[in-house]
Amino acid sequence: MIEVKGLNQTFMLGKKHNQTKLQVLKDVSFTVEKGDIMAITGRSGSGKSTLLNLIGGFMKPSGGQIFINNQNVSEFNEGEFSDFRLQHIGFIFQNFQLITSMTAYENVELPLVLKGVPETQRNELVINTLAKVGLADYQNHYPSELSGGQQQRVSIARALIIEPPIILADEPTGSLDSETEQDVLAFIQQLNRDYGITFLIITHDEEVAQIGNKQIHLHDGKIVKEELAR
Ligand SMILES: Nc1ncnc2c1ncn2[C@@H]1O[C@H](COP(=O)(O)OP(=O)(O)OP(=O)(O)O)[C@@H](O)[C@H]1O
């Protein structure tokens, strides 16, 4: 489902006349099958977010290729990737990235608006998706009126609403207390089981990584360990 082949990422640092090159990913290759939960672990600065940003199409790789559903997405231009994301990829972030001036309902509705789904069809989808994450009674709450765990559920609903085959999650429980973390992890596993959604989860937390059936460990931009965790 996702095939990463010989991925390299280099950043140029400093001013034009005095630039240094920083290689953040070095020949990274791995495969994610449909229905996998893949945990990507590694210390701060090891290249985890860069890898997820490349797979999510937020930047172009310096070298190598990424195939999603047999399409070479590394060749997509920005517009093509935006369309592709709206069909195939949901995102969950550590700090939720909800729009503070929008209610839970409006945040979850947003991907449908971007996709051009008519208003008459949006209402039922939003209500059903909020119910799926256990927030049917919270649709009119603004993010500031919700707990961290509830905000993460809104962001999961926003990811789910397009029914994506893939969800990319960057430290999804990083801002949550341990009890809420367990709830969110159980929910991710449930979504994986019930809907076959493939997850790529970045974490520096070994406990979070344990929900993965696959794990890769990055060190200085290289895969140093690949494991089947269960
Ligand atoms: N746009 C950029 N320009 C220059 N350097 C960058 C850029 N993005 C990331 N880096 C550098 O790449 C390296 C890897 O960063 P990255 O965010 O991928 O690591 P990470 O493993 O996700 O770390 P953390 O766990 O702290 O989020 C770091 O040294 C960082 O400074």
From TrEMBL:
InterPro entries noted in UniProt: AAA+_ATPase, ABC_transporter-like_ATP-bd, ABC_transporter-like_CS, ABC_transpr_LolD-like, MacB-like_ATP-bd, P-loop_NTPase
Location of the ABC transporter domain: 2-228
PROSITE patterns: ABC_TRANSPORTER_1, ABC_TRANSPORTER_2
Record CDD domains: ABC_MJ0796_LolCDE_FtsE
Keywords: ATP-binding, Nucleotide-binding, Transport
One MF term in the entry's GO annotations: ATP hydrolysis activity
GO cellular component: membrane protein complex; plasma membrane
Pfam families linked to this entry: ABC_tran (PF00005)
Family: Belongs to the ABC transporter superfamily.
PANTHER family registered for this protein in UniProt: ABC TRANSPORTER ATP-BINDING PROTEIN YTRE, IMPORT ATP-BINDING PROTEIN
Record protein name field: ABC transporter ATP-binding protein
Native source species: Gracilibacillus oryzae
